[in-house]
Design a protein that fits this description.
The chain has about 290 residues and is mostly helical. About 40% of the residues lie in helices and about 10% in strands. The two termini are about 35 Å apart.
Length: about 290
Amino acid sequence: MLLCLSTQALAGAYEDYIAAYNVMAVEQMNIYGIPASITLAQGLLESAAGRSTLAREGNNHFGIKCHRDWQGETMLRNDDAPDECFRVYKSVAQSYEDHSRFLCRNRYQPLFNLPAGDYAAWARGLKECGYATDPNYAARLISIIETYSLYLYDSPVNPEAEQTVSFIHETLSRSHPVRRSRGLHYVIAKPGDTYGMLAKELKIKKDKLLKYNDKEHDGEIKEWEEVYLQEKLEEAPEGVTSATIGDGESMHSLAQRYGMKLSVIKSLNPEVPDTPGERVSLRPVH
């Protein structure tokens, strides 16, 4: 469950989160070598800028699950499966520290061979190492980093370059880079975006954009959700057979995540309620 905010308050929530935790992210970078931009972007995405129930009640800002070695308090939330076990921390600082230690596991060692300043490579590496099941996880992180110029926290900024940095920040904040996954072109929605705004920026008819994204009316888009610029596919990505509707999500959320037509998902699940915690088939059951 997320706290509902107005568009202006929503944008402010992200800025406030960065202001509150950028020093913490830089401290972790200096100790463990994880780019501060990556830490902040993951914190923003996984905790919805500190608004998620897991963050508010459990101080868990990175969606880290219990696993066998966790001896602390726990909380059950719907994620890849219903009622999954997540870690609960005494403070946000403990969550940031545990996140760094978590990435120091053997599974994530390939990340530390990447250039420290290459946030895009780190974002893709996290996905490749299996941090998240979301197929577009790397694209979301990159979009957040570029929207809020989080790369500036990865190294000291040359004062003489402030004007250039400001220009880059303004340009990236306005633009929505077109990305491609499974042959589908899409952009990542930022806080406060509407389909009408994106249609105007991308020079595409609004009614087409709404149709491509299974929407009948214009409205505010879920932050960091995919917005497709063409017809979605009728089948899930290879190897994906089902998914759980997570907290604050719906079948439409799954349709966007996996680039599938919502009508196909509904036809595969005629008797499944469109509510969090429900397991949804994404391929026909034989």
